[in-house]
Amino acid sequence: MDMNAGIGGFAAALTQYPVWVMNVLPYDAKQNNLSIVYDRGLIGTYMNWCEAFSTYPRTYDLIHAHGVFSMYMDKCSILDILLEMHRILRPEGAVIIRDHVDTIVAVKGIAEKMRWNGRVLHSENGAFHPEKILLIDTSD
Known about the structure:
Blueprint: H1 9-13, E1 22-26, H2 34-39, E2 43-47, E3 60-66, H3 68-71, H4 78-88, E4 89-100, H5 101-113, E5 117-122, E6 131-137
Parallel strand pairs: 1-2, 3-4
Antiparallel strand pairs: 4-6, 5-6
EC number: 2.1.1.-
Main location: membrane
GO molecular function: methyltransferase activity
């Protein structure tokens, strides 16, 4: 699942693999990119991540979240979003979070309290860029 799909670039990058990606766009997005996602032959939907996603628990193996926590910072808590990720993620699943370093540090702290193992990496922009990547392994 791509929690902030934009135009479906994450899913498009994975088309050579035997996987499917649910492209989720913010319900209050300034641009309606869902038609672009559909035009690329991909699946997608709108979502407010302060609410529960309409899916069965333990549906997804991997969740990609680019800028989601910064986007919802003033709308709901980091814990609410992480708990929803936990609900829809399969056991031993993985999460890739890309966000501002301050947000990444806050997310990592809460994720560790959930007994998720995370490590922070620099983005392709280098060590001095404020955007970082948090890789989370949910296995024990």
